[in-house]
Amino acid sequence: MRNFGLAFEWFLNLPSSNRAWLQLSLDLLTGDLKKEKESASFISTVGHTDKRVKLDSSISREDVRYKRALSAMAAKIAYENEAFIRDTVTNKWQMDLIEFYDFYNYYQEKNTTQAFMLHDPVDELIVVAFRGTEFFDADAWSTDLDISWFKYRCIGKVHGGFMKALGLTPEAILALHNEGLLLERLEGVYTFGQPRVGDKDFQRFMEKQMKDHNIKYQRIVYSHDLVPRIPFDSSTFLFKHFGTCLYYNSLYKEKILKEEPNKNYFAPMFKYLVAVWELIRSFIIPYVKGWEYKETWLLRGIRVFGLIIPGFAAHNPHDYVNATRLAESTVE
User: Fold this and answer.
1) CA–CA distance from 158 to each of 111, 147, 155, 231 (Å)?
2) Are 274 and 186 in contact (CB under 8 A)?
3) Each residue of 220-259: pLDDT tens digit?
4) What is the reported pTM?
5) Quick check: 280 and 287 in contact, CB under 8 A?
6) 314 within 8 A of 306, measured Cβ to Cβ
7) How far is 233 from 263, CA to CA, in rounded Å?
8) CA-closest candidate to residue 165, choices 128, 215, 114
9) Which contiguous run of DSSP H or E holds residue 116?
């Protein structure tokens, strides 16, 4: 899968590359694409589903949507390499890139978690954005599908795969959540298409932490996105969400909910009609909202596949960025 992913990203980046097709082909055959992948012009597969890099100038810093929209863009570019992120944050956002991180996992004995930290000098705001699962990372997908439990005293049960990906021990978890100063200074957390990660005890633990430390936690869900609806909230799987659900439908209308509609995905059949509408909308939206909302051919191809598995195509950065920009909101 990794080699296929390298070839696919190479193909996606050909039109924007300054290097000759023959040289790129030789690099692909010899496996020498590392230098190309580390350049500021190289875009990941996720990045090719939404090539926007500029912040929405129509959303002012005083707008209640500003931090949510900034977080969505930061989460989107977290899939890119360090040079791309540095160029975007510094030159396009006029902010400071504090550091790009590639964390080593002692449990899996490799680097498994990527993130970056930026500083907005105008608002004296620090944003930390973490990369999600990449398209062609088989190890990460197998980790996501590992729904075994790690049980921690005073915390509850936590998704085993995610804990293995973080490489954390029970002692490290307890130490992290005992960092009172860190939690006191944490203004807010925004997640986009977050899956369930723990049981009811973990849900209570997290909600108590947010209440005790006055942390604004917004779990943002777009339409029939499959990922926030797994692992299932049932008597068999026992997974639970925590935090306020900020739900956006396929018209980018916002609702504040405790749980997203159709919480376990399989019903209703209406989601197939929504998938058809989202494909049609991809051709219409630039004429209605502006050309910055034009969708790439790759995303439209994913939407076609989403006609078979509704909700698969809805887990994409384009719709989450659109939701933070287009929805009328009173939620800060």
Assistant:
1) 21, 9, 8, 12
2) no
3) 999 999 999 999 999 888 999 999 999 999 999 999 999 9
4) 0.91
5) no
6) yes
7) 7
8) 114
9) strand 110-120
Return the half-sphere exposure (C-beta side, CA atoms, 13 A cut-off) of residue 25: 3
Alpha-carbon distances of 115 from 77, 143, 326, rounded to whole Å: 10, 18, 27
In the block, tokens 């049932």 appear at 234
Residues 6+ apart with CB under 8 A from 48: 12, 296, 298
Rounded Cα gap, residues 101 and 113, in angstroms: 8
Pairing of strands 216-222, 188-192: parallel
Please report the beta strands in 32-88, taking only residues with DSSP state E, as ranges in sequence order.
none
Of 37, 30, 38, give the one whose Cα is nearest residue 10.
37
Rg of the chain (C-alpha set): 20
Question: pLDDT tens-digit profile of 42-85?
Answer: 999 999 999 999 999 999 999 999 999 999 999 999 999 999 99
Q: DSSP 3-state assignment of 9?
A: helix
- For residue 308, give both structure tokens: 């078979």
Query: 3-state DSSP helix/strand/coil percent for the chain, to nearest 5?
Result: 40, 15, 40
35: buried, middle or exposed (CB in 10 Å: 19+, 13-18, 0-12)?
A: exposed
Q: Average of pLDDT values for 192-197? A: 96
State phi, psi for 277 to the nearest 5 degrees: -60, -40
Instruction: Give phi and psi for 222, each to the nearest 5.
Output: -100, 120
- How confident is residue 92, by pLDDT bands cut at 50, 70 and 90? very high
State yes or no: cis peptide before 170, omega within 30 of 0: no
pLDDT tens per residue across span 93-122:
999 999 999 988 887 888 888 999 999 999
For residue 169, name the pLDDT band (cuts at 50, 70, 90).
Answer: low
CB 320 within 8 A of CB 221: no
CA separation for the pair 300, 90 (Å, rounded): 30
State how far the Cα of 163 lies from the Cα of 150, in Å rounded to an integer: 8
CA 22 to chain centre: 35
Could you tell me the CA-to-CA distances from 179 to 44, 173, 302, 311 in Å, in that order?
Answer: 35, 10, 41, 37
CA dist 283 and 45 (Å) reads 21
Q: How far apart are CA 306 and CA 328, in angstroms?
A: 27
